[in-house]
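Worked example 4.2. Below are the chains of a multi-component assembly; read each line carefully before continuing.
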Amino acid sequence: MTPLARSNLRERSLADRAGTSAEPFRLLVDQIKDYAIFLLTPDGRVATWNEGARRLKGYEDTEIIGRHFQQFYTEVDREAGLPGRLLAAAIADGRVESEGWRVRKDGTRFWADVVITAIRAERTQELLGFAKITRDLSERKASESQREHLVLELQAANRELESFAYSVSHDLRAPLRAIDGFSQALLEDYGAIIEGEGQEYLHRLRAATQRMGQLIDDMLRLSRVTRGPILRERVDLSAVAAEIAAQLQAADPARPVQWTIQPNVTAKGDSRLLRLVLENLLGNAFKFTSRTEGAAISFWSERRDGERVFSVQDNGAGFDMTYADQLFGAFQRLHGPTEFEGTGVGLATVLRIVSRHGGRVEAVGEVDKGATFSFTLGRDGG
Amino acid sequence: MVAEVTSEPPPILLVEDNPDDVLLTRRALARQGLETAVVKDGIEALDFLFAEGRFADRAASRLPRFVLLDLKLPKVAGLEVLRRLRSDARTRGLPVVVFTSSGEERDLVEAFERGANSYVRKPIDSIQFGSVLRDLGHYWLTVNEATPERA
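Applying the procedure described above to all two chains together yields the following C-alpha cells:
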C-alpha cells in the first residue's frame, strides 16, 4: 500500500502544495474506505483526508482541516510528545510505523496501525509534508487478546488434566491394592474356613480389581497421548512392526500365526507414539485371530490418491460394519469380555495419535472374515 | 504402628502413610520372616533416621538395612526426604527403594536424579505385590553388600 500511495502522492497531489485536489487522485484515495489517508503539512496539520479517515475518526472536513494531527492521539501520548517524535522519525528515516491507541472525535479509542511517510520535492528534497495512513486494528486486537485468553485457559485446563491424571494414577490404585490384597489375605489366612462359593466370590473380587487396574492404566496411557509435543522423525515402521510381532508371538509361542511385514516401510512421525499405534493395531490383530485357524496378520504401506496409507490386516473375528463408527470411541467394545478381553481404549488411542499427526484412520471388516485398519499421517507423514 | 526403639532396629524402614499399604507390606514381609519399622510421614522418616525429635533416644548410627519410601507423603514428600538423606553424610549411602503407586515418568526420573537406589511400582495384583517385596527383601538383605557399619 505504501509504495502505491507514495508514488501517487509524489506525482500528483503532492505537487499540489496547497492541498486542493487533483481530481483522479482524489477519487482514488476517497474510494479507499478501510484506510484513513491523510496529507499533513510539514508542521503536522491536516491538509486533506479521505472518506476512510472521516469514517474512522468521526470528524467532518470543516472540523479537522487545518488542525494539528496530534488531536488523534491520547492525552498520555500527546504529553509524552509522541506525535512530534513520529514526524521527526519520518523526516529522519523517510518513513515511520507505529501501533497504538488513537482517539475518535467522540473520545472513544481504537487500536491503530499508523504509517507516516515524509514527502519531499524530487529535485530540491524540500519537505512538502507527510502522508499518514491509519488502519483500524481494533478487531484484530480484540481477536488477538481473545486468542491469548483462550490459550491461557487451555493451558490451565491442560495443567488441571495433568494433575488429575496424576492423582488418578496414584489415588485410584491404592484402594484397588487394598481390595485385592485383603481378598488374597482372606484366601491365604482363612481359606480353610471359607467354603467353595465364598472362595469363588473372593476370586471374582480379585479378577474385577485386576480389570479396573488395567482400565486405569489404559486411561492414563490415553491421556498421556494428548500431552506433550509431537516430535517428527523418520521411523522404520517395518522394524517396529517386526519387533512387536516377535513380542506378541513370544508371549504365546504355541500359536501359529503367519506374519507378513513389508520391509522398509518408513514414516515421519513421533516414534514413541507410532510404536503405540502399531502395538495397538497388531495387538488387536493378534488377539482377534486367537480363535482363527490359519491366522494371518500383515502390515504394509501403499500410495492411495497421492497419499501414503499404512495398513494392518488380519483374518480373525472381524466386526460388523454397522458398528464401525463405535470402534474408535474410548471404552467402546464390540465384543463381550468373555469373547476377547480388553478395555476398549486401544483404538481410541490410535485415533488420537493419528489425529495429532494430522492423519485419518479407517476400519474395514466383516464378521468372521477379518479386519483391516488403515491410517495416514498427514502431509508431512509419508 | 510405630517403630519400636530397640537396640537392634528392624532391617527395613517403611515410610508409608496409607494404613492399608502399611498392613499389606508388613504382612508380605513378615511372611518372609522380615521385621519392618514403620513411620507415616516425611518428618517422622527424617526424625527416625537422624534420631531426632520423637526418636531422639534412638542410636543414630543404627540405620536400617534399607528404606522403602513412598513418594506421596504428608508434611515432607518422599522426594524431599530423599534429597535430605542424600545431602547428609550419615545417610548418603543408605539404600533407598522408592515404593510408590506412581508410574509417572517425571517421578521416576526425579527419584533417580536425587539418588534413589531403586524405583518399584506397587503392583495392584496382591500376588505380585508379595513377590516384589520378597525379591526386594532378598536382594537388599542377602544379595547386596551392605555399606560398612559406622560405629
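Take a moment to check your reading of the output against the notes. Chain B has one domain: 12-142. The longest strand of chain B covers residues 96-100.
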